[in-house]
Structures are given as C-alpha cells and as structure tokens.
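Our preliminary data section would be incomplete without showing what the modeling component actually yields. Below, a chain of 401 amino acids is followed by its predicted structure, encoded as tokens that our downstream tools consume directly.
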Amino acid sequence: MELIHRNLLIGIHDALQETFFQEKKYADKVIERLLKANRKWGSQDRQVVSEIFYNIIRWKKRLEYYMGEGVKPNNVYKLILAYLLWSKSHYKKFEEFDGVKTADILNKLKKGYIPTKAIEYSIPDWLAETMEKELGPKWEKEMLALNEQAPTVLRTNTLKTSPKELVADLQDEGVRAFTIHGYPDAVQLEEKKNVFLTSAFKDGLFEVQDASSQTIGQLLDPKEGMRVVDACAGAGGKTLHLAALMKNKGQIIALDIFEWKLAELKRRAKRAGAHNIEARFISDSKVIKRLHNTADRLLIDAPCSGLGVLKRNPDSKWKIDQDFIIRIKKEQEQILQDYSKIIKKGGQMIYATCSILPSENNLQVEKFLANNPDYSLVKEEKIMPSQGYDGFYMALIKRDN
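Predicted structure:
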C-alpha cells in the first residue's frame, strides 16, 4: 500500500472529515460519492483510497493514542500520517504533513505499549466494558475478528441462475469467485471488485449479501405457496432471498417504516425477477393489526446495535452509545411482542439481529417466551465474527396455540 498522489490524500482527508464531523454521514455512502466524483481514478487508486479510508475509521482510537490527541476537523492530516507510519505504508512527504512531529508518533510506535484494551482494539471505552461484561473472556477474540476487512459475498439469485453458473459468468467478466461449502447460494469473491458494473449484476443474477445473513432465509425455510411476512424488510436483501427460496410462488408482504427503503426494494425485486412481493408502508399500527393470524412464516430482522457487522460498517462504533443500546433493546422487545401476532397457529417466525450481544439476542427471546407461553423455541443459531463472516443471531420460534 502506498500513497504517492496528492489528490488521493485530499480525497481521503475530505471523506474522513465528512464521516467523523457531519451528522448522519455514513462511511459506505461517503466513499461511494467520493469514488463517483473521481471517475478518472484507476482501479489501483480507488483501492488505495478505500483501504486507507476504512482502516483509519477502524483504528481511529488507536491512531489518536499515537497522535497524542483526539481527532478534530483541523488535524485529520495528522491522523492520516499516524496511520501511514503505523501501517508502514510508503508515502510522499506532502506539504499537508508539514508541522506534524513524526518523532513523537514514531517513539510511541517503537515502545509498542498500548495502555488499555479499548485503545488496543480501537473501540469506545463503554463498548469495551459492555463486550467484556456480555461475552466474557472471548470478547477479545471477537473484537480482533471485527477489526478485519469483510470478504465480499454474493447471494446467487436462484430464480435466474445457479452458484456454479454465476461463478463462470463472473469469471468471463474478469471477476474471480468461488462457492462456499455449507452456504448453498453463496459465492465469495477472491478479491475486492466493483461487481455492480458487471452484466451479471445488471441482469439480476446476484445480490451482495453476507454468508451469515443468508443463513436466516434458509432457517426460516419458506415453502412454495406460503404467505410470508418480512416485518422489517428495509431495502429487501432478505426479502429477495425468501422470494427465491419460494420459487416466486406464494405471497411475501414486505413491511417497513421507511418508504424510501421500500422503493429501493421494488427496484431490486424488478431486477431480480421476484414478482411475489408486495411492499407495504407501516403508516400506523393498523397495518400490523390487519395482518394478525395470517402468516405461515414471519421474519423479524430487528433493528439492533449492528455490533456483529463492524467489519463492514466500522464507523457505526463511533456513532452509537450506551443510550442507543438501551433504546434499541426496548424497541426490539416491543417489535417482538407486537409483530409475533402476525403468524397463525402452527406458523413459525425468526427473530434475528446482526448483533453479538446476548442482551439483544437470546435474552430478548427468553423474555418473550416467558411472557408468551403459546410460543416455543424450535432452534437458535449464534454466528460469531471469528467464524469468518458477519456476527448474527437468529431464533426460530413456533406459535403453538
């Protein structure tokens, strides 16, 4: 990795400023806009910019320790330099680095001393405490995994192709990929590529979806002809998987509280050739009540802390706090209680999160089952980041009466 072009440095600087200091600016969208605005950058340049940008976000707290101060709008170049020195990246001595005392940073690097676990793993102090409290001694192993770069995994759209055919089609377009044992629809890229430019994507042959996330649809096991409700559908990644598993037969009702997400879902469904999906905006509680006792299968992909997906969303650890976790847990409890009435007797539902905290996962399910004796746990799966993909929790619950 080397940084030898000034325009790339400025691009990284501006993107970091936007992510850290502007409200509701998320890293994935910031970098997407930056790369779109600089179409002349070659693939190597784009890779350098993306990698440095994400690594600095990932390791912000540790880099602040090396810098000797917290990151502020006026010292982002110092932050970048601290990263370049720490990662031993080759760089040009740009004028933007003038005045930074590199000796101080190098001294700290040489000593190799890291005062706290929060600094070592580059997470807020409250999060280090929460992880240790909830996960015990294994939290460090999981945090280590969460600081790695996420692999790019695709979900084959089996309405149009098979995983083996998809691998061959991508190969024809210069994208090397392979199937993953134990994940029937998954295909993993050998190296990062912009797959959205491929004909395979434009033809609706795949969606980008992590291998762990794909497990949810498989566990829910919807059958052809069933009525399925996806209660927190968002932009529809899992909804489209359900449509493929049902071979377009039956009905999927995709619900969300954001209309713009449902508009994106419709666009994606059209490309995928999934036409058994009906999107419904949750305008009020009546939308849910009208669905009571009507579904064979229900998916509750609940809002959560997102701590299981820090590999791909490292900026979220700087945007959430303890209060957010408390609020989200109350929301999860409410959603589980309200939406569970959608399934009919004998029907099954999944409660899922992309968190690894027991308080958002199995403890929520235990509380729900204690308060609702008509429901019983069929199976639960905890997928930890150290297993290689995103951290996820999913509980398959049956309504008995």
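The mean pLDDT is 95. The first helix runs from residue 6 to 21. Preliminary results of this kind motivate Aim 1 of the renewal.
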